[in-house]
Amino acid sequence: MSVFKNVIVYRIEPGWSQTLAEAEEGLGKQRFEPCGASQEKSAGWVEPRGEAHGPLVESIDGQWLLEYMIESKSVPGSVVRRKLDERCAQIEATTGRKPGKKEKKDLKEDITHELLPMAFTRTARVTVWVDQAERRLVVNSSNAARADEVVSSLVQNFTGFGTMQLNTQIEPAAAMSEWLASQEPPAGFTIDRECELKATDESKAVVRYAKHPLDIDEVKQHIADGKRPTRLALTWDDRVSFELTHGLQIRKIVFLEGTDEGAGGGKKEDNFDADVAIATGELGQLVPALLDALGGEAAFTAAPAEEAPKAAATAPAAATAEEEDAPF
Fold first, then answer.
1. Residue 107's closest CA among 70, 144, 82?
2. Closest Cα partner for 196 from 242, 235, 245?
3. Which pLDDT does position 113 carry in this prediction?
4. Would you state the pLDDT for residue 92?
5. Which ranges in the chain belong to alpha helices (H)?
6. Burial class (CB in 10 A: 0-12, 13-18, 19+), 204
7. Residue 236's CB: how many other CB atoms inside 10 A?
8. Could you tell me if 153 and 29 are in contact, meaning their C-beta atoms sit under 8 angstroms apart?
9. Could you tell me the sign of the dihedral formed by the alpha carbons of 251, 257, 259, 262, in that order?
10. Whole-angstrom distance, CA of residue 23 vs CA of residue 9
11. In this predicted structure, what is the pLDDT of residue 312?
12. How far apart are CA 324 and CA 148, in angstroms?
């Protein structure tokens, strides 16, 4: 059950409507192509099932599943600097002058392009779920910049498509503070054994609990002293455990025992369909329950399609040190 691990959820602009065939045609305009010899980055859409020349949009129980791939090449900075020093020394030896700042910059760019064909490539895949009925877009990433890139691609390739990140009546940090202080989580949720608290004053002090009971006076005192939760581990309905962040990201998703009944043991393609159906079914219930726990969803203000990337860029920055799905 690894379809979704860390997700950012968006609300799709109300006026958007598209058929499966139209979506397939749109994504086909940006089908992924590997990096060329001297190309630093390439990105585009690939087949979610991993079958060559297959569909770019899979519809399973009415839910659309897409997959965005990013490939990049990078040359170690230490190698570039060493080569640059060698070139500069050679120029000085033959001409008697030291290269200036602009010349060094040009030399550095030339060296990078020369070494790119020998550089190793790194790839990342981002699963995307489009729920047309509920007008939700779910991007499987905890990296806001990467999610923004995915949303921008959809805006470019889906006619009339626009999104805004979900917003709630109660700020997640405020709600998590209340749950921890009162030890009364919302109905259907339980508090688990991990959280992070951060001071809002100049000290920026951080306290982290891992595999530790949170129903203790020490946690309550930290909150009374002004520290606010930036992330809190929760379980919903004994079915899904996850970590809620102050930016309304849902991270470290684990589908618990019983949610995957009947998912295994069949053909590979059957397992794919079952995994997607289970994951979207569970998250399709978790997200509304979480929104209700946060006072309900704030009014949605539709943004024109051309403004959607800007809206997506306002997503809270993720903690890159703990990010699980980003090799770069």
1. 82
2. 245
3. 79
4. 87
5. 20-28, 77-95, 101-115, 144-157, 172-182, 217-224, 268-293, 308-312
6. exposed
7. 22
8. no
9. positive
10. 20
11. 37
12. 18
What whole-number distance in Å separates Cα of residue 190 and Cα of residue 204? 28
Contact 128, 155 (CB under 8 A): no
What b/e readout covers 158-193, taking b as 16+ CB neighbours within 10 angstroms? beebbbbbbebeeebbebbbebbeeeebbebbebbe
The region, left, alpha or beta by phi > 0 then psi within -120 to 50, assigned to residue 209 is beta
Q: Which of 70, 79, 63 is nearest to 33 (CA)?
A: 70
Give Cα separations from 119 to 74, 79, 105 (angstroms): 6, 11, 20
DSSP H or E segment with residue 208: strand 206-210
Pairing of strands 121-131, 63-73: antiparallel
How much is the pLDDT for 68?
A: 97
What is the per-residue pLDDT for 268? Answer: 54
Torsion sign, CA atoms 44, 286, 290, 326: negative
Place of tokens 């087949």: 47
Greatest Cα pair distance, the chain, in angstroms, is 77
Spans in the chain with pLDDT lower than 50: 1, 302-328
Enumerate residues 6+ apart whose C-beta is below 8 A from 300: 11, 14, 164
Per-residue pLDDT of 179-199, as tens digits, reads: 999 999 999 999 999 999 999
pLDDT given for residue 328 in this prediction: 36
- Whose tokens are 């086909």? That residue is 28
281 vs 278: CA distance, rounded Å: 5
